Amino acid sequence: MSTRRKFLQLSALASAGTLLASCLPQKSGFQISKNPRKPVVLSTWRFGLEANAEAWKILGNNGKALDAVEQGVRIVEDNPEERSVGYGGRPDRDGKVTLDACIMDENANIGAVASLENIKNPISVARAVMEKTPHVMLVGDGALQFALEQGFQSMNLLTPESEKEWREWLKTSTYSPVANIENHDTIGMIALDVHGNLSGACTTSGMAFKMHGRVGDSPIIGAGLFVDNEIGAATATGHGEEVIRTCGSYLVVEMMRQGRSPQEACEEAVKRIHHFIRKGGRNEKEIQIGFIALNKNGETGAFCLQKGFNYAVHDDKNNVLIDAKSLL
Ligand code: ASP
Questions:
Q1: CATH of the domain at 271
Q2: Does 218 sit in the ligand 1 pocket, CB within 6 Å?
Q3: Closest atom, ligand 1, to C-alpha of 215
Q4: Hey, whose CA ends up nearest to atom 4 of ligand 1?
Q5: Does residue 186 have its Cβ closer than 6 Å to ligand 1?
Q6: Which atom of ligand 1 is nearest to the CA of 214?
């Protein structure tokens, strides 16, 4: 081979290497500890306590974070008393219960469903989308068709209690979600397992009495949930439109990559959202957003726009509910 050809080949290889290196996510700022706190799991709202306890059955037995987050949030999906997630979730304005969910594992595999009807565990359908299809998201009838093909049982998700509330709402049909009152709340759960791997799950029936077909942040990877196994994970609750606008959970994880603690990263993201709310002329008093975050070292954080958001953290010592600090 001529020296010139060899030189060209070598420099092509070198620049491909440089290109590859520059495409890889940079860890600038983030320091991995030699002694991470693990396992640890955290999830949004009061129902996070029971969800964490379920997840711990897996995490505490050296199980995988992915299995833990799926099984953890299923407990809330199954519970008809929880009226913002899964079975018994409040319907849309047409009286239909439509569910949104997504899941992400340590290898950046993702799966999601949106506007799924008649299946009480959308998180498991999302996992099946991730593991059994070449796609990452299925919606509406297509998601239902896939779920049935996979053996999920069809059932009526509208409980008498939720139907009663909807009929009451129909009398005025005014849609004005108010921060922290019982018309919306998502369970987002993120976990670090004993093997040092992160995964997350997020599931909701979305805003009560939403327009039929409305999809919030919860099934959207990067908005309602994001996991980067080199850095950390984040998930969101609250007004999905605001979280989508800022790619909220992705933003939190990228802040952690730059060296912010999980707490600082959540604060930055809420401030960014607040800025956009003001820019868009929306009323900040009527909007709630909450983020929780976990880094690869097992450190946690949370922050919200209005007072009233809480989250549950389970480590090898206990499972506690914590009031998140707020911007306003
Ligand atoms: N984020 C959910 C949605 O916008 C609702 C919530 O968490 O309260 O659908």
A1: 3.60.20.30
A2: yes
A3: 9
A4: 240
A5: yes
A6: 9
Q: How far is ligand 1, taken at its centre, from the CA of residue 194, in Å?
A: 30
Q: Each residue of 267-307: pLDDT tens digit? A: 999 999 999 999 999 999 999 999 999 999 999 999 999 99
Please tell me the residue having the least CA distance from ligand 1 atom 9.
206
Task: Say how far apart CA 93 and CA 169 lie, in whole Å.
Answer: 9
Q: Which domain holds residue 196?
A: 38-326
pLDDT at 44: 98
Q: Which residues of the chain have pLDDT under 50?
A: 1
Angle in degrees, CA 192, 196, 197, rounded to 5: 65
Give 225-237 as a DSSP string: EEEETTTEEEEEE
Q: Are 304 and 292 in contact (CB under 8 A)?
A: no
Q: What is the pTM of this model?
A: 0.92
Query: For residues 189 and 183, what is the distance between their CA atoms, to the nearest angstrom?
Result: 20
Active-site residue, 186 included: yes
pLDDT digits (tens, 9 = 90+) for 179-194: 655 556 899 999 999 9
Position 254 in a domain: yes
